[in-house]
Amino acid sequence: MRSSFLVSVLVLAGFATAQTPPPGNQQRDLKLEKIEPPKPPSNAPAQSYAVIVGIAAYPKLPAKLQLHFPERDAQSIYTALISPEGGNFKAENVKVLTGAKATLAGIRQEVGTWLPSVAQGDDRVVIYFAGHGFIYQGKAYLAPYDFDMANVTGTGYPMDELGATIGGKIHAKWKVLLTDSCHSGAITPEDTESLNHGLGNLTQSLFSLTASRDRESSYESPELEGGHGVFTYYVVKGLEGEADTSPHDGIVTADELAEYVHTQVRQATNGLQNPTSDRSSYDKNMWLSFIPANVNPATAPAPQFGSMAITVNMDDTEVFVDGKSVGIVAKGKPFTLPGLTPGQHTVKGVHQGFEPDGPREETVYPGTQSTVNIKILIPRRRSKPAEEALDKGIAYYQNKDDYKKAAEQFEKAFQIDPTYSQAAYYLGLTYNALFDEDKAQQYYKKAIEIDPDFLEAHANYAGMLLDIGDVDEAIRQINTVLTLQPDHAVALTMLAQAYRFKALYPQSIEAARKAIALAPKSAEPHLWLGDSLRLSGKLADAGSEYEQYLKLSDFDSKLGGKLNYYVLGSLFGIGRKKRAGTEDIWKDLRSLAYFGICDCQYQSKQYDSAIVACQKSLSYYQQDPYAHFDLGLAYMHKAVAANSPADLDPALQHLQQVIAINPDLDQARIAKQNIAGIQKALAQ
Fold first, then answer.
1. Domain shared by 132 and 81, yes or no
2. CA pair distance 253, 267, nearest whole angstrom
3. Phi, psi at residue 53, to the nearest 5°?
4. Quick check: 232 and 77 in contact, CB under 8 A?
5. What's the helix, strand, coil split of the chain in %, to 5?
6. Which range (190-194, 205-209, 438-442) has the least confidence?
7. Is the same domain home to 143 and 169?
8. Pick from 147, 219, 516, 633: CA 20 to 30 A from residue 547's CA?
């Protein structure tokens, strides 16, 4: 009787147990404000969405039909679309299906269900496919990962289905279809005899650019920046600005891209491959990318193109043309860079630890190939005073109370030698630790400018960008690291963190699991994996990952391991909001993990366990309103379940703490309702 009386009193008093925000809204101090990218032209679409598909290995096709580069092609398209000097898509609005994820069911889900559900009348939609295409009984099919030639109609993705989806289900003012596959020209037939009429009657909103005519094959080449499909290579180059030829206004229109890609692919394949587009079926005002740096140059480039053949004398030399990395070049293997506008281009070769060759100007002539030899010869020698200043700075940097002294020494080293990339890098680290993000960003950029293949600089810069809320730019920096080193476990860990911030939980889970496979002893990927699993509703799995994180980061009684963890945190810049020192990073992350366990237990109605975990979380970070909130609710539920009015006192205290810490949270609003209910119940 007493238990039922307590329940009824709390309910009448306004006990807001059913008003707890859903797990997806609980983001602790990780809720970030976005930094706006440069604004594109005034007729920009309201939102942009894309589905990117790339399949190289087909488990049910013979060895002779396996491809090499579609997954790299898909990554290049992704990079071009999310770049502010390109498509300017939001990363969370781009779905990437590569390898085993690109099944028939997966493609139908993203193209046939997701795109129609999100795209509106003022939006832009891009669909890209790289892989095999087949013709069977007069109909054309794209080949998903699980394609089986013994069952083409049951396992292939019919092009007429794709056409019907684009034309009838997806509502957007601009629709773009890019296909790099054998027989992809069947999508946009050039005559009435075409094998596929799926897209024949679409509205003027569609721009379809395909790799070849309907009876041609599409080619890929290992000589194109490490390997790409010829069609995709030039699509990316075009989107990055090479197609912006007339009036050279920083905007790549559909017409410009079609002309550029057709010309370049035809030339590169000696006429064997001819990309196609239907020039009457899309909005003449449609533009595909915006490159602010190209706006109003002094002179417009000539309308034809040339190429460079680049050789280097040292393996792992990164080559830059006009300030942009074009790839890592191996010694003795000529690197062809076609599709360049005629005129002067700057070329630079960089190898970490050596003086760069360049930048110097090289001339590209229309219709010809220019030979460029890059020679990395001189080891980068530092003056003794600069090295001594750097060493002193590093010694100071190990103590959070000496960050300002560290910065003074790093500044001294950089003044002595303005090419000292490590000094610039440590200045970035130190000013980040001092909360001076402007200076940190300045020096990270300097370190990357001096040594563009300085992966740790890219990674640390990404970590800081995560802290200040520029998640999109952080993803681009991480993508740079992973392009140069796909097995970079720290970059994958930060990618998991970035996707978690974006609420892209499946992508976060995938990145975290890759990081764990590469670095099984690393703690932090387990934390972001746990967070994304919890916010996906997979509470039991999430709890296991949080426990694993706590186990791997438990250095309280093992000083050596603790120091190793601190070095990892400081040198690889897993950015933190509370950057007062590496010890604070460690405490903050353990607080996050215990909060995650608390929230899992609370949602599972294990209130005693939730109370223990939240108390542990607060022992590392007392000012966490979310931990106080869950703890207050757990005490309230326990009071009801165990008929224990005494538990209402701590419930009241923790809910009051939520309001004191941050009265603007949704949790604070709910806390106020519960406080009123508890006070009324206690009074009765």
1. yes
2. 21
3. -125, 130
4. yes
5. 50, 15, 35
6. 190-194
7. yes
8. 633
Structurally, the chain folds into a number of domains equal to 3
Contact predicate 393/407, CB 8 Å: yes
Query: How many C-beta neighbours within 10 Å does residue 371 have?
Result: 10
- The phi-psi region of residue 573 (left if phi > 0; otherwise alpha if psi is between -120 and 50; otherwise beta) is left
Residue position matching structure tokens 């003795």 = 332
Q: With respect to residue 239, please indicate whether it lies within any of the assigned structural domains.
A: yes
Choose among 487, 463, 489, 482: nearest CA to 474.
463
Give the length of the chain.
Answer: 684
Helices (H), 89-132: 104-107, 115-118
Same domain, 13 and 73: no
Of 126, 83, 340, 76, the closest CA to residue 233 belongs to 76
In a shared domain, residues 632 and 541: yes
Going by pLDDT thresholds of 50, 70 and 90, the confidence category of residue 365 is low
* 76 plus 126 within the same structural domain: yes
pTM: 0.65
The SS3 of residue 64 is: helix
Judged by DSSP in three states, 471 sits in helix
Distance CA 509, CA 507 (A): 5
Residues 253 and 318 in one domain: no
pLDDT, tens only, 148-193? 989 999 999 998 888 888 888 898 888 999 988 765 554 443 332 3
For the segment 366-414, what is each residue's pLDDT rounded down to a tens digit?
A: 666 778 888 887 787 778 898 889 889 988 887 778 899 999 999 999 9
Residue 483 maps to a domain: no
Domain with 72 in it: 48-294
Do residue 666 and residue 539 come from a single domain? yes
Question: What's the CATH code of the domain at 578?
Answer: 1.25.40.10
Q: Give residue for tokens 């790299």.
A: 72
- CATH number for the domain spanning 168: value is 3.40.50.1460
